[in-house]
Amino acid sequence: MILGVHRTSACDPPEGRYAHAPVPRFAAIDVGSNASRLLIVQAKEPHRQRPFRSLRIPVRLGHGVFQTGELDPVTLDECVQAMRTFAEAMEDARVDDYRAVVTASARSATNGHELIERVRREAGIRLDTVDGIEEARLVGLAVREAMPLDGHALLMDLGGGSLELSELYFPGGASEAAAPGAAEPHAVVPARGGAGFVVSLAIGTVRLLEAFLRGGEPVSPDQDRLVREYVDRLLAPHRRKLRRRPWDHVIGTGGNLVAAAELAPAAEAPRPTIDVARAREMLIELSALSAADRAARFGLKPDRADVIVPALYVICAMADLAQVERIEVPGVGVKEGIITELVEKHYRVWDYGREDDRVLVAALHLGRRYHFDERHAVQVTDLATQIFDATAKLHGLGAKSRMMIKVAALLHDVGDFLNPQSHHKHSQYIIENSDLMGVTPETRKMIALVARYHRRAPPTIRHTTFRGLSPDDRERVRKLSAILRIADALDRAHLGKVSELELVLKKDALYLTIESDQDLALEVWTVERKADLWRELFGREVRVKVRAAAQAVVTT
């Protein structure tokens, strides 16, 4: 049974809806590679959060997984038990809503699904596997709430299995004056801490510890060389991005960054801050000690004493690339980002439109990377959105689906870059395997399928990825694909012939009135052919009327 938190509809009024608690409570669970964390807060208003309870259980889920590819059975059992503890804490607190995520360890494991299923079955918690891009988005939300920022900020979130780097932009700041025109027009999204580049790298403290270091022993010269070479090699492709401007802020998140700020504190800083020069000294000093000696001398927890050394390697390497001597540490992470999103959505102050804009900008960048036909993509996106909105009562899909069809329409032809003849399949592959900020892997999979089915065969359970969706998601993909096929047909020649589109939905058909000064015979014929899925799903025809400047010609 899934954990019985009290959930309410988004349509319910915010006042008087919690009979059991005067102030709504929200919980976030972050199952990391080095430890699992629970945060429960209560929020009387969107920006008036008060901590209620916090738990950290040092289960190293990443143990062995980055070398063997599988979660260790004993560690898996310990993680499930930790989730039971978290579930009891949430029940005791009478939490109203929650989100639980697992990061690099599970997404790297071939048996990650076993963890998800056991946690659902034995602890009653729905555990989402999130990719590095979603991690970066959540951490960015947390940082936005935790500290005042302006200009360009480089965010580095260091976990046990991965390092997420992202560029956050806030209006103002020295970097704008120092590096005018350094970014492309669409390189950053100036939206309450919008993100520019985002990258997830296989650089994590547990990963480095188990690959190159001997547990808690002092670091040998050969090990030192290997760690430095590995970190430098993975960071090298991003050197130009990291040095293209002076950063107004470099911000570090994760438990090891907090520990490093305590070991190497910068003087006269308004918040915990790492002095990089002192961090270099600490790396030399700690590397010469065993983990037990580090814990005894510096008061570190055992599960921190071994991973702090690989963390310092990453901190020093990042400081070299970003050319900074200080790294600010606000002390927030994934769980605080989850809380921010839950609370803002609960109180209806979450900016869904801004969220969609960020996703579309990311999709636009992806399309440009593969040299797609941007004019055609934008035209089809506009037509698909109009059809979606005009037929909302028929298909019954909501805001999430509207965002999905816009992204799918924008990227439906991106596979042309690889092979025009079967570009729909290549579009699916590119979308599934690309990072889109704010889009979960599950949603990205559905978007990829909608893009695939814009031509040729309609959705079928013979296709493995489609078959793997839930029945509801399969139906969503069918409906969105039916809309996209019509929208794509309306720009069959890729010439933007349709200048105006009017839509009327009636019981017998969807009536399209197109205004154009060009010959649309090809487009009308293609609509007739590609409306097959629409007719099958909705039992209605699609009728097209072409209206020129001087006269109207009716075509069916």
Write the layout of secondary structure elements.
Layout: E1 25-31, E2 36-45, E3 48-57, H1 65-68, H2 73-93, E4 97-102, H3 104-107, H4 112-123, E5 127-129, H5 132-146, E6 151-158, E7 163-170, H6 174-178, E8 194-201, H7 205-212, H8 221-235, H9 239-242, E9 249-253, H10 255-263, E10 273-275, H11 276-287, H12 291-298, H13 302-305, H14 308-322, E11 326-328, H15 334-346, H16 352-369, H17 374-390, H18 392-395, H19 399-411, H20 423-432, H21 441-452, H22 464-467, H23 471-489, E12 500-505, E13 509-515, H24 521-530, H25 532-538, E14 541-547, E15 552-555
Parallel strand pairs: 1-4, 4-5, 6-9, 13-14
Antiparallel strand pairs: 1-2, 2-3, 6-7, 7-8, 10-11, 12-13, 14-15
Helix pairs in contact: 2-4, 5-15, 7-14, 8-14, 10-14, 11-14, 16-19, 17-19, 17-23, 19-21, 19-23, 20-21, 21-23, 23-24, 23-25
What does this structure look like?
- With 556 residues, the protein is α/β, with parallel strands linked by helices.
- The chain has three domains: 25-131 and 337-344, ATPase, nucleotide binding domain (Nucleotidyltransferase, domain 5), CATH 3.30.420; 148-329, Nucleotidyltransferase, domain 5, CATH 3.30.420; 352-555, Hypothetical protein af1432 (Orthogonal Bundle), CATH 1.10.3210.
- Helix content is 47%, strand content 17%.
- The protein is built from 25 helices and 15 strands.
- It has helices at residues 65-68, 73-93, 104-107, 112-123, 132-146, 174-178, 205-212, 221-235, 239-242, 255-263, 276-287, 291-298, 302-305, 308-322, 334-346, 352-369, 374-390, 392-395, 399-411, 423-432, 441-452, 464-467, 471-489, 521-530, 532-538, and strands spanning 25-31, 36-45, 48-57, 97-102, 127-129, 151-158, 163-170, 194-201, 249-253, 273-275, 326-328, 500-505, 509-515, 541-547, 552-555.
- A five-stranded mixed β-sheet has the order 3-2-1-4-5, with helices on both faces. Strands 8-7-6-9 form a four-stranded mixed β-sheet, with helices on both faces.
- α7 packs across α14.
- The protein is elongated, with a radius of gyration of 26 Å.
